[in-house]
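Comment thread on ticket #2218

A.B. wrote:
> Attaching the input chain for the structure job we discussed in standup.
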Amino acid sequence: MQIEDVKVSARSNPSQRIIAAAIVFAFLYFASEVVITLLLAVLIAYFLDPVVNVFERIHIPRALGALVVLLAVTAAFAGLGYLVADRADQFLAAWPRYSGVLRHVTTAFDRQMTTVEKGVEAISPAVEKGRTLSRSVEPPPVREWLLRGVGSLYTILIVATFVPFLVFFMLAAKPRIWKATIELFPDEHRERVRGALDEVSSMLRSFVAGNALVAIILMLLSWGFFLWIHLDYAFLLGCVSGLLNLVPYLGAVLAWVPPFLIGLAQWNTVGPYLGVAAMLTFLHIVGLNVLMPAIVGRRVHLNALAVTASLLFWGWLWGAIGLIVAIPITATVKVICDHAEGWEPVGRWLGA
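C.D. wrote:
> Ran it. Output below, let me know if you need it in another format.
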């Protein structure tokens, strides 16, 4: 009796890959709170890991060093939050003054839109007799998009509760987690996996540190500019506009909104608005096209098309949070493709 050799191929066909990709994207969408929390914890842990390593080199236990670093960072953010909250409280106390001006502007704008609509109706074909036009009230799409992923109280509570614990455990148990991750792969691939993990670690650390440094620079420059033009609540506006300016592409426009809102009660001409828009756009261009490449450009090798596509996709999937994590996720995918056999062309395309 002749025995035939049967070859079993583990290679998947295109339809199986499409189904697997659909399952992954569905998981990322429906489990967004969990995934976003883990991603934020990973970014913070990579940023704080060098400080914990310094403590470990001076013979301080890694768990204790991680706890000290985490408490110090929490105290620093609490102090900054107190300063911002104090200025925000002053702004809220004076809100009736600004709300009246804002209401006047929106009323005038609505009046102009009504005039335009009547003009359009006058030249459009007559509506059938007996039919009435009804307007459906929909939530503002911009606000809904910006708050998606961060707007729900449940998401905020999840992030605020679990991120500190996740960061502490990641920092305290990093050597064991690192070793266990490498041992998941066969011996012949471990060296390549180790190189990929080292490169991802260096890239994420540089990205977070670079963004933090650029954010501080933009906040200080915005604060100084608002002080120079005697705009109220300069510190609060500098913090908000400086952070918004970090958002690629959209940040150049989003950063205008806070000073424009405060300027409604102070400016009666269009000149100051044009000056603020020009200055903040200039800071956005310098921050993202000069400072950011100089600080993190050597670590994050992504072409403009890959960056734009990643911002569109992750922004659509997760809203405002997606814009924050889009670049590190794409850069991590590039590093993995560079070290995964057969995926090198994808990595080269992302960095072309």
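A.B. wrote:
> Thanks. Noting for the ticket: DSSP finds 15 helices and no strands in the chain.
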